[in-house]
Amino acid sequence: MLKVLLPADGSDASNQAIKDFIQLLGDYKEIPEIHLLNVQLPLHGHVSLFVDGENIAQYHKDEGMERLRVARQLMDQAEVSHQFHIIVGEPAEVIVAFAKEKLFDRIVIGP
Question: How far apart are CA 93 and CA 29, in angstroms?
Answer without folding.
Answer: 31
